[in-house]
Write a structure and sequence with these properties.
- By secondary structure, the chain is an alpha+beta fold.
- The protein has 2 domains: about 10-195, Bira Bifunctional Protein, Domain 2 (BirA Bifunctional Protein, domain 2, 2-Layer Sandwich), CATH 3.30.930.10; about 205-245, SH3 type barrels.
- The protein is built from 5 helices and 12 strands.
- It has helices at about 20-30, 75-90, 155, 165-180, 185-195, and strands at about 10-15, 35-40, 60-65, 95-100, 105, 110-120, 130-135, 205-210, 210-220, 225-230, 235-240, 240-245.
- α2 packs across α4 (about 165-180) and α2 (about 75-90) packs parallel to α5 (about 185-195).
- The radius of gyration is 18 Å and the shape is globular.
- The termini are far apart.
């Protein structure tokens, strides 16, 4: 793997626009080292498809970056980050945290965290992956006004969390996963992800994409981390979209 087998210290900001954007700018300015940034509050937090992510005090907002080889597959760094995050939360939580394709973490069927991974390619410099997470931890989430059902760990577990402990354990887990990517096969990583999936193989899902809605039985994910569905017209793979269970009856 390109880069150091080290775990960087967490740089903490009281307030920042976006932890991902801060790391991207540092890389484009010539910083080629690994880095981790955390914010007490974000003012322009965002998720997939540039959706805004509410980032009040009490949540965990953290991004990590690492240089990657030219032949590396960036999506695997995102998958590994998700697996590391789910395992970390499960090791500390009294509730089960699961992974929901493509980039959410859920507990009791509602969203508690979201991931965003980006590839940064500076001119005449090494590529980096920047991956960030926003976790609803100690901040109550209102039941209304959300695009999809969401909650926070404090609401689900009934107790407050130590954000410093959570951040430290998460960073340790993420960089350990990233360091092991070359030694571990993509199939093993995707199997680890599937073992933590909110959806089980065979469940009926609906996926909403820019081209419309499609339903089918969940078959897992492809080698490129596409959602695989067995539809009425045969197997289809989706690189993007929002998916949910199809309720029977």
């Amino acid at each position: 793997m390109v880069g150091q087998s080290t775990i960087p210290d967490i740089v903490l900001f009281d307030e920042i626009g976006s932890t991902n954007d801060w790391l991207k700018q540092a890389i484009l300015s010539g910083d080629e080292s690994r880095a981790t940034v955390r914010a007490i509050r974000q003012t322009t937090g965002r998720g997939r498809m540039d959706r805004s992510w509410l980032s009040p005090v009490g949540g965990l907002y953290l991004s990590a970056s690492t240089p990657v080889a030219a032949a590396a597959t960036p999506i695997f760094y995102s998958v590994a980050f998700g697996v590391a995050a789910a395992r970390t939360l499960n090791s500390l939580a009294s509730v089960a945290v699961r992974l929901k394709w493509p980039n959410d973490l859920v507990a009791q069927g509602v969203k508690v965290a979201g991931l965003l991974a980006e590839l940064v390619t500076p001119p005449d410099a090494q590529r980096h992956v920047v991956a960030g997470i926003g976790v609803n931890v100690n901040t109550p989430i209102p039941p209304d006004g959300m695009r999809y059902p969401a909650s926070s760990l404090v609401q689900i577990a009934g107790r407050e969390w130590d954000l410093e402990e959570l951040a430290a354990k998460l960073v340790q887990a993420v960089f350990t996963m990233w360091d092991n990517l070359e030694a571990s096969s993509p199939a093993r990583l995707l199997s680890d992800w599937l073992g933590l999936s909110e959806f089980k193989v065979g469940e009926m899902l609906a996926v909403e994409t820019l081209s419309g809605r499609q339903t089918g039985a969940f078959l897992g994910v492809s080698e490129q981390f596409e959602l695989r569905l067995a539809t009425a017209d045969g197997e289809r793979c989706f690189a993007e979209g929002d998916c949910r269970r199809v309720r029977s009856g």
